[in-house]
């Protein structure tokens, strides 16, 4: 096995999804901090690793992969002893893929990034209410996806759970999850928070992003 390096920053949800996956697989890796607010991801050196200049980036034996969903799927295919976290069965895998794409397009891009970019990079401190409504709409979908299952894709945890929890655990700072309105989502979040090393791998970074949002937002309009 080659040397694994994860490039990222704690507050980043997709970085935390990769950390949860690496830990679940028992993989050793070096973690290299990329300070986004200081522009370290825009350097020539980092662009050679990832021309899209996003974190996370995984380095495996000198090769680079970016995009957390691709990284998590790669890690399971390449290193897992079983396929539980990313099943080979066509239908089961399709279900995991659907949730991963939901995280990528709806939760991360549609909710987190749409709020974060104006706040952190354009100094616009008022958040349109429609963007908060979009979070609740996403929660409605998640409530339906979970249904009576323990995890997002059934009885066992998969990389979809790691991906989705990375953003939901920060979105709660913008749109609280009411246990009466979202009993399934709330129960699932509790189960995820009870996973080994959850706090150090995801909880602390999720809170950092919540604090970053709180320090910038002046008003919901
Ligand atoms: N869908 C991507 C999102 C990656 C992403 O946008 N990461 C943010 C930090 S949370 C970033 O690197 N932003 C800096 C930039 O876009 O220049 C993934 O899952 O890896």
Automatic annotation (TrEMBL):
Pfam families associated with the record: GST_C (PF00043), GST_N_3 (PF13417)
InterPro entries (UniProt xref): Glutathione-S-Trfase_C-like, Glutathione-S-Trfase_C_sf, Glutathione_S-Trfase, Glutathione_S-Trfase_N, GST_C, Thioredoxin-like_sf
Residues annotated as domain GST C-terminal: 89-220
Entry's Gene Ontology molecular function annotations: glutathione transferase activity
GO biological process assignments: glutathione metabolic process
Residue ranges occupied by any GST N-terminal domain in the UniProt entry: 2-83
Subunit structure: Homodimer.
Name used for this protein in its record: GD11378
UniProt source species: Drosophila simulans
């Amino acid at each position: 096995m080659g040397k694994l390096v994860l490039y990222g920053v704690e507050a980043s949800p997709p970085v935390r999804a990769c950390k949860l996956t690496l830990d679940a697989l028992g993989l050793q890796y070096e973690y290299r901090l990329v300070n986004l607010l200081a522009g370290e991801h825009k350097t020539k050196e980092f662009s050679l690793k990832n021309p899209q200049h996003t974190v996370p980036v995984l380095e495996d034996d000198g090769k680079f992969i970016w995009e957390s969903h691709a990284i998590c799927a790669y890690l399971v295919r390449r290193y897992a002893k079983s396929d539980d976290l990313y099943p080979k069965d066509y239908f089961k895998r399709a279900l995991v893929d659907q949730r991963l794409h939901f995280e990528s397009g709806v939760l991360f891009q549609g909710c987190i990034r749409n709020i974060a970019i104006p706040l952190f990079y354009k100094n616009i401190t008022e958040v349109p209410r429609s963007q908060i409504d979009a979070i609740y709409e996403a929660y409605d979908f998640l409530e339906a996806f979970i249904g009576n299952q323990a995890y997002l894709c059934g009885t066992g945890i998969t990389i979809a759970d790691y991906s989705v929890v990375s953003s939901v655990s920060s979105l709660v700072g913008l749109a609280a999850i009411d246990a009466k309105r979202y009993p399934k989502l709330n129960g699932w979040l509790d189960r995820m928070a009870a996973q080994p090393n959850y706090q150090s791998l995801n909880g602390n970074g999720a809170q950092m992003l919540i604090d970053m949002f709180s320090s910038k937002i002046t008003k919901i309009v």
